[in-house]
């Protein structure tokens, strides 16, 4: 496992309000994704959930997966999950595009089936991208600070 990039201070400040097992799960899942695709850009949001989105560009539309952190759980979301082959039926949800894998412990994602699904999502995002990106391996905070 590579050493993943540091968590952005805007995100970390909000993450620290979560309970420690949830923080540990998020950090491990984030490292897992960054090990698979270290060049991904990480877009950070705080809306109804604290969310790290992993994209092949600086645009949300080029994202391949996301980690929304709710009060008591984390999901491994796939932005275009309905368009991915899911031979092991890992994905749940009813949205038009987004599907997710509920995550309660590392065994829910640290396996070859999920790794293959993430790689398929990356490949799909690359093939579906409108134009090449100039941003590689950056963390971009979209979190609005209360001043």
UniProtKB/TrEMBL annotation:
UniProt cross-references to Pfam families, sorted A to Z: DUF1801 (PF08818)
Domain YdhG-like: 26-122
Origin: domain of life: Bacteria
Protein name as it appears in the record: YdhG-like domain-containing protein
Species of provenance: Haliscomenobacter hydrossis (strain ATCC 27775 / DSM 1100 / LMG 10767 / O)
């Amino acid at each position: 496992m590579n050493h993943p990039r540091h968590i952005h201070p805007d995100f970390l400040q909000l993450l620290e309000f979560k309970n420690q097992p949830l923080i540990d799960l998020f950090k491990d899942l984030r490292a897992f994704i960054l090990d698979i695709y270290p060049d991904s850009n990480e877009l950070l949001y705080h809306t109804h959930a604290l969310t790290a989105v992993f994209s092949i560009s600086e645009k949300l539309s080029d994202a391949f997966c996301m980690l929304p952190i709710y009060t008591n759980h984390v999901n491994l979301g796939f932005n275009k999950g309905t368009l991915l082959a899911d031979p092991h039926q890992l994905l749940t949800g009813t949205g038009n595009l987004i599907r997710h894998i509920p995550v309660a412990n590392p065994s829910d994602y640290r396996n070859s089936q999920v790794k293959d699904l993430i790689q398929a999502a990356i490949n799909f995002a690359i093939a579906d991208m409108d134009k090449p990106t100039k941003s590689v391996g950056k963390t971009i905070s979209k979190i609005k600070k209360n001043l």
